[in-house]
Amino acid sequence: MPTGSAAVRAMEIARGIAAHSPVALRQAKRAMRLGSGVDLAAGLEVEDACWRATAFSPIGRRGLPHSWRNGRLGGPACDRLASLP
Known about the structure:
The longest helix has 16 residues, at about 40-55. The chain is flat, with a radius of gyration of 16 Å. It is built from five helices and no strands. The chain is mainly alpha-helical.
């Protein structure tokens, strides 16, 4: 890797992460922290709880893909998201 390119790439990644809502970032970090080192079932429970905290937060919804916010992926969670103001 050329000298200095790691710092440039790190800033690109940081800008991409910072573009998401603070709620979405907080919950993603929480899911990684709480879901690490647990069995699959517990990890999926943690992931679901953190996703719901983001998805049903007015600020957190900004960090979700447009197709999820508008229910185009289908399923009850997407239906609930589509009905939110």
